[in-house]
Automatic annotation (TrEMBL):
The keyword Signal applies. The chain crosses the membrane at residues 16-36. It is an enzyme of class 3 (hydrolase). This is Probable cell wall amidase lytH. Residues 41-105 form the SH3b domain. The keyword Cell wall biogenesis/degradation applies.
Length: 291
């Protein structure tokens, strides 16, 4: 304390007003520096180092707004994970680009070719079966839900196993399995159904989730199904279904079209269209597990 006093006296700073002005000045300088740094961080100019896409959100799941060429300049206006929100200087284009496609020092995930589904266990639950036929069509085909949920699950199983996933099915044949017995553990749980309504007009796919830890999987799968499938997309919705309620793992219930709608029925019973939907589910799961 003595040395401080001596120093203050020596520099003629013993009176309080001078001290306050000095301290205020130092704080002011720090604020200026902080402001300049902040500005630099938020609105810095960046450029794209290779041709890529501008997307509506910070993930490859989101739709592309437009493609951008290598060398194009943008103002950086935000950041989420490894994705950068950018705006063109004329304010015409705004969206998200992958950080590793910009001049910023952001590395893509270790091995982009690594298979995110390798060593994952996916549970597939083909709805209904045996004495419970599920929904059915009113057309000459008389298609029943239990047949197409099982076909879809078996085809999906083959595709998932090609990606290195382990697949467990709640049923593999035309047998009745209670809802309680369908509660099998895995890294993800996918229950497969077809919708129906009295009115043959209702159509489209819906992805249901119930618990909070199921929402991201539902939205991711829905985005991929929307992108690929020809059916109307009714979105990801929350619903209290027992198979979703009784499990703790990320789980969804897919309603892959209305079997009561003749157009949807044609797609459900068409192997080529089922394959498109199944591949969309595989791609969605890959995206989900690569996060
Ligand atoms: Zn069903």
């Amino acid at each position: 304390m003595k040395t401080v006093n001596t120093w203050l006296e020596k520099h003629n700073l013993k009176n309080l007003p001078t001290l306050i002005v000095m301290v205020a000045f130092v704080i002011f300088i720090f604020m200026i520096i902080a402001f300049l740094n902040h500005n630099d961080e938020e609105s810095s100019s960046i450029y794209v180092t290779e041709d890529t896409d501008l997307r509506t959100g910070p993930n490859a799941v989101y739709p592309a707004i437009k493609s951008v060429d290598q060398g194009q300049n943008f103002n950086k206006i935000g950041k989420s994970g490894k994705w950068i929100e950018v705006e063109s200087s004329n304010h015409k284009d705004k969206g998200w680009v992958a950080g590793w496609h910009t001049n910023l020092d952001i590395q893509a995930d270790a091995d982009p070719n690594a298979n995110p589904l390798k060593d994952k266990t996916i549970v597939l639950d083909p709805g209904h079966g045996g004495s419970d036929q599920g929904a059915s069509s009113n057309t000459k085909k008389h298609s029943t839900e239990k047949v197409y949920t099982l076909k879809t699950a078996k085809e999906l199983k083959t595709l998932l196993e090609k990606e290195g996933a382990t697949v467990n099915m709640t049923r593999s044949s035309d047998t009745y399995v209670s809802l309680d017995d369908r509660n099998i553990k895995g890294d993800a749980y996918i229950s497969i159904h077809n919708d129906s309504l009295k009115s043959s007009k209702a159509n489209g796919t819906t992805v249901y989730w119930f618990k909070d830890n199921q929402k991201v999987l539902a939205e991711t799968l829905n985005a991929y199904i929307q992108k690929k499938a020809l059916l109307t997309n009714k979105g990801a919705r929350q619903e209290n279904f027992q198979v979703l309620r009784q499990t703790d793992v990320p789980a969804v219930l897919l309603e892959l079209g209305y079997i009561s709608n003749p157009t949807d029925e044609n797609m459900i019973t068409n192997q080529l269209h089922r394959h498109i939907v199944e591949q969309a589910v595989v791609d969605g799961l890959s995206a989900y597990f690569s996060e």
